[in-house]
Amino acid sequence: MLINAGLLLAFRGDAAAEGRARELQLDVSLGGYSVGLIGAFHQSETGTLSARRKELEELGIKVPQHFRPDDDVPLSAIPGLSHRYDEAAQRIDLKAPEGLRMAKIYDATPQPDAAPGAGRAATGAVLNYTLFGNSSGARFYDFWRYPSLSANLDGRVFSDLGVLSQTGIVANRSLATDKADILRLDTSWSYSDPATLLSYRAGDTISGGLPWTRPIRLGGLQIQRNFGLRPDLVTLPLPSIDGSAAVPSTVDVFVNGIRTVSQDVGSGPFRINNVPILSGNGNASVIVRDAAGQQTETTLPFAVSSKLLRPGLTDFSAEIGMPRLQYGLRSSLYAEQPAGSGSVRYGLSDRVTLMAHGEGARSFGNAGAGAVVGLGSLGTVSAAGAGSWRSGATGGLAYLAFETRLGGISFFASSQRSFGNYHDLASATASPTALGTLAFDLPGRIVASATDPHAWSWLQLPPRAVERISIGLPAPWLGGGLNLGFAHLKEAGGRSSRIVNASYSRPLPLGGSFYATVFADLATRGSAGIFAGLSFPFGGNITASSGFTRSGGAWALAADVAKPIGQEPGSVGWRLRDVEGASYQRRRSASVAYRGNYGQVEGGVEQGAGRVSGAAQLDGALVAAGGGLFLANRIDDAFAIAKVGAPDVDVLHENRVVARTGANGTALIPNLRSYQSNRISIDPRGLPVTALAETTQEVAAPPDRAGIVVDFAVRSAINAAIVILHGRDGKPLPAGVPGALQPGLRGVTSPAPDFTVGYDGRAFVEHLGTDNEIRIRLADGECSARFPFAPQEGTQITIGPIPCR
Hints:
Layout: E1 3-4, E2 22-30, E3 33-43, E4 49-52, H1 53-58, E5 72-74, E6 82-86, E7 91-95, E8 104-107, E9 124-137, E10 148-159, E11 162-172, E12 181-193, E13 198-206, E14 217-225, E15 241-245, E16 249-255, E17 258-265, E18 268-273, E19 280-290, E20 295-304, E21 314-323, E22 339-347, E23 352-361, E24 364-374, E25 380-390, E26 393-406, E27 409-420, H2 425-428, H3 432-435, H4 453-456, E28 465-475, E29 480-490, E30 496-507, E31 513-521, E32 529-538, E33 542-551, E34 554-563, E35 572-581, E36 587-596, E37 599-608, E38 611-625, E39 628-632, E40 638-643, E41 650-653, E42 656-660, E43 666-672, E44 678-682, E45 691-693, E46 697-700, E47 707-711, E48 714-716, E49 721-726, E50 738-741, E51 755-756, E52 762-765, E53 771-778, E54 781-788, E55 797-803
Parallel strand pairs: 2-7, 8-18, 40-47, 49-55
Antiparallel strand pairs: 1-3, 2-3, 3-4, 4-5, 6-7, 9-10, 9-38, 10-11, 11-12, 12-13, 13-14, 14-21, 15-18, 16-17, 16-19, 19-20, 21-22, 22-23, 23-24, 24-25, 25-26, 26-27, 27-28, 28-29, 29-30, 30-31, 31-32, 32-33, 33-34, 34-35, 35-36, 36-37, 37-38, 38-39, 40-43, 41-42, 41-44, 44-46, 45-48, 49-52, ...
C-alpha cells in the first residue's frame, strides 16, 4: 500500500533490534529523486529487504514475470536492482537501469470530473413555426394579386418521460380558394438515458447506417448508442508519446508548430497518453527540457481518425418497423410488411475498429461486415463486404476506402461495387403502389409494370459502382491551395457519369479572398463549366462579392453585398444581389431581416424572368413551461426558464446578456447546450434593494430538446435592516462575531437565523418586528442590544449606531 510521504511518519521501535523480522514504511527515492510515496517493505531476520510485486510496480520497478502480484519479492531477486537503506531517516534509495524501470503514465487530457447529470426536465411544450408568404406577377404593381401562404410547424411536448414531437407543413397555394393542404412529416417519442448512453425512439425514425449502407425512413421502434449524451467523453483513440528523461524535466509536444501539451515528468521512462490531436496524421515534435535548460528534441509520427473507436467502446443502432414511402409527398404511406436493421461498431484496439450491419424483411436478407484499420502515419484504410438474398436471387457488395494526410497533402479514395442481384432494404421495400402516379425516365432495358413489383425495385437498386477520389494540396507558388476531385457513378440501369473538378482558393490583401472551380462530366458532352469570384469584407460585418459562371454554353455575372443577421436580439441583416446574363438568368433582389426578442422577420422582393415577386417570412417559437407562456426565437435544442421573482433583471448565459425578466419575474433563455454545463446568472444590480438572492449563478445541464427551470430563490427582505452595532467602549464591534435575533418580543415569534457582524460593526438582520432584541457572542462574553423597526417599501433601512451592552 502506498501513502503520500508528507502524511506519514515512520514508526520505529524495539523491533529494530537485530535478528528480528519487521515491517517497514519507507520514504522511497528512485535514482536519487524522491517519488513522493511511502513504500511498504519487509525486513527478514537476516536483514534482507523485500516487497510485494504490486508495491514495487507502483514504485516504477519491473518485476520478473514468474512472481505473482501478491508474492513477496526479495530486492536481491531482481537482476540489476540495487538499493541503499538509511535506517536513521527511514528512507530507501533504489537504483535501476532504464530497462528495469516502468514508464510513468501521464494523461495529457485527464478525464474531467463526472459530467453534470441532466437537470430534471420541466413539463411543457414548444411550438417552432416558420410562416412564409409570397406572391408574384408580371408587373410590379400587380405582383400581390396571386399570394400563397405556408406554415412549417415543429411542435413538441416534453417531461421527465421524454419528448413527444410532431412536424408538418400547412400550405395554401392560392388565397383565392379556401382549401389548405396539410402534410404530416414526422411523429415520434424519444427518451435518452445519460447513465447508459442509450436513446430510445418510437414512431417515425431513420435507421442507422455504416459507410456502405443506405439508411431508410420507417415507423417503428429504435434503440441507439448516443455518445452525444456525454459531450466530455472522447470516443476516438488519441496518440501517446513515449520517452525518457535522465532527470526531472518538462516535456513539450508541438503539432504543426503549435504546443498542445506541456507536462512535468520525473526521471526515467515516461508515457504521455491522450495527446489532444483530434484528426489527421503527421509528425509531432517532442522537446524534453530539464531544470538546467538542456533539451533534446525527437520527432514521432501520429495518426488520429474519427472513424476509429477507443478500445472497448461500442456504437450501435437497431430498429424495426414499417418502411416509410413517399416521405415529403404523402402524410402516412408505409409498406405493408415490417422490416428491421441493425448496425454496430466496436473498438477492438487503438488501430482496429470492427463494423457489422444486417437488414431483413419478408423474403429478403442482407448482412455485411468490415473494419477500419489505422496504418499509423500512413493513414487509415476501411474495407467491407456484404451479401443479400431476395426471393432466391443473391448478390454481393464490396467497399474499400483509404484516407491519409502527408505533410500538407490530404488524399481520400473510395470504391463501392455491387455484383449480381444485390439488394438492400431501400430497394427491397420499393413498390409500384408507393410510386403512385409519379413519372420516371426508366432505362430502356427495364420493363416495369404495375403487376411486377420487382421491376419497379430497379429504380431503387444500389448503384453498380461509386468511386471517389479527392486530393488537397498547398500551392505556395500560387499563394493558395488546390483541390482536385473525381467521382464515378454507374446506376443499376446502366447510366454512368464521370465528374472531374478542380478548385483553387487564396487569401487577398485587406481580408479578401479569391476562388475558382472548373468541372465537367466526362460522360456528357458540353457539360463543362467554371465559376470564379472575389470577396472582400467591410466594416460593420458587411461583405461584398462578385462572381462569374459559365455552364452549358451560358454565362452569368453576379454582384452581391450582404450583412448577415446576428444571433442577438436587435440584430439587422440585409442583402442586395444582381445577376446578369442570359434572359432566363437575370435576377435582381433585395431583402432585409430583423431579429427581436420574440422572433425573426424577413422580407424581400425579386425581379427577373419577366416577373416580379415578393416574399415575407416570420420565424419564432411559442413556449409553455415553468408556469408561463413565452414568445421567443426558434428553439431547436434545450432551453431554460429563469425564475427571478423581480421584473427588469438581466439574465446572462456564459456572461452574455440573453434575456430580461418580464412583469412576472421570469425569463426564457434559448439555445442552451443539452447535456453540457451552461452557466446561467443574473445581474443583481437589477434587483430591488429589499430583495435577497440565495445565489446569482447556477450551472444547468438540460436534456435534449427540453426545458428546465432555474430558480434563483429571490425573496423579499422588507423586514430586514442593516444594524450598526457599537460595543461598551463606543467603538464598532469587531468583524466576524456571531449574533442572533431573540424571540418573544412583538413581531418575533420564532428564532431567526444567526447573523455575523461585518466591517464597521454593520450586520444585516432579517425577520425584524416592531420591537427587537439581538444578542452578540463576544470573546469575553455576551452583549445585547434593543431597537425598534418600521419597514419601508423599496428602501434599505439602516439603524444605529446601537450600543451593545
